[in-house]
Amino acid sequence: MRSTMLGIVSAIGLLVVGCAHQINISPPLNTLDGKNVSRIDKVVGYYIAVTDRTREVTTPGGGGDKVKYLPYQESEPALRQVLSNVFTRVIAMPSLTDQQFMTTNEVAYVFVPSIMTDSSSESALTWPPTKFTMTLDCRAVDRAGATVWQRQVKGEGKAEFSEFKHDLSLAARRASKEAFLNLQQEINAAQEFS
Amino acid sequence: MREAPFAAPTPPGPGQTLIYVLREDSAFGAARKLAIIDNDTVMAVLTPGSFSYFTVPTGEHEIVGYLSPSPVMHYRVMPAHGSTVYLLCRMGYASGMFMEVMDEATAQPLLARFTYTEIGIKNAKAKMDYKAYYDNLYK
To answer: How far is the C-alpha of B63 from the C-alpha of B46, rounded, in Å?
Structure first.
């Protein structure tokens, strides 16, 4: 009887403590405004490796719980949006070494992002993160495969319960919005693409 | 809200966007109905494993999942003439609570398995314009 009770309590404990909750870190695309950007008349590509696209990351949430998400897959629409705000045409690249594809599609540069994230919560009672950070390291390579540009930008998002109850991913989405807007600013200011 | 036989809608014409909204088939919150609002207009009500669709003029549409007494998830559909958008309302203890876009290949098997629902109060006005509400949340 005692071991049965212990088993039930342990099972309940496993269910309610340390669980990883799925969130989505894609910022709403309407928030990635390209109004003050000078458009560059070039075709560019971006490359996300298959292994990165399916990579799931787990970081801390509140109350001992964790949050999990797919940083590359969920950031892809934002990357495409900021590149589309700056350049006239954007293509997803199947490979980083396919020079034939780049030449045929007149791709001038390929952007390769590297994404690092972290999260935390000041709340012991709710699991969504109240703070989320995204560091975006992005490089651009030319048709010869040489790195012609590289920058690191950051985004930080905070959200309180009164806000994130309407969007449990809010802190993460605010962070990714800020990171991609900072990336857009850096690309737009770069002399290398003019 | 009632279950109904599904008849494929007319494909969206120029200046139109067809939006399918599906709710994950999960026991989490199963007793609660999820209202689907387009900006400020109630378009559907979903139970677990059900879906609905509606056609809107092409433009920005804030599609909101509303679990009384407040909105709990949203997705901003961006302008794309003649396109079809598939949105999945994730509602599970571990699978999260958010709305995500799916491609057609992912959506079709779910549409074949899920139940189509209709509502009698379609086009009723919601409590507020949620497009402006979520714009403010991201400022």
So the answer is: 13
Residue A7 domain flag:
no
Q: What DSSP string runs through A61-99?
A: -STT-EEEE-HHHHHHHHHHHHHHHHEEEEEE-S-SS-H
Could you tell me the residue range of the domain that residue A76 belongs to? 20-193
Q: Let me know: does B54 contact B44? Beta carbons within 8 Å.
A: yes
Residue A64 lies in a domain: yes
Distance between A70 CA and the closest CA of chain B, angstroms: 12
Q: Which residue of chain A is at minimal alpha-carbon distance from B61?
A: A30
- A12 falls within a domain: no
CA distance A144 to chain B (A): 34
- pLDDT one-digit tens code per residue, A13-61: 445 556 899 999 999 999 999 988 999 999 999 999 999 999 999 999 9
CA atoms within 13 A on the CB side of B64: 25
Number of domains in chain B: 1
Domain of residue B104 covers 15-137
Alpha carbon A70 to its chain centroid, in Å, reads 8
- Residue B28 maps to a domain: yes
Q: Cα(A4)–Cα(A15) distance, rounded to whole angstroms?
A: 17
> Which residues in chain A are closer than 8 Å to B134, comparing Cβ atoms?
28, 166-167
Tally of domains within chain A:
1
Interface of B with A (CB under 8 A): 60, 70-76, 78, 90, 92-98, 100, 133-135, 137-138
Measuring CA to CA, which residue among A80, A187, A182 is closest to residue A135?
A182
What average pLDDT does range A97-111 have in this prediction? 94
∠ CA(A67), CA(B97), CA(A81), 5° rounding? 80
Cβ contact, residue pair A167, B134, below 8 Å: yes
At B26-78, the pLDDT tens digits run: 998 888 999 999 999 999 999 999 999 999 999 999 999 999 999 999 999 99
Is A79 a member of any domain? yes
Q: What is the mean pLDDT of residues A95-110?
A: 94
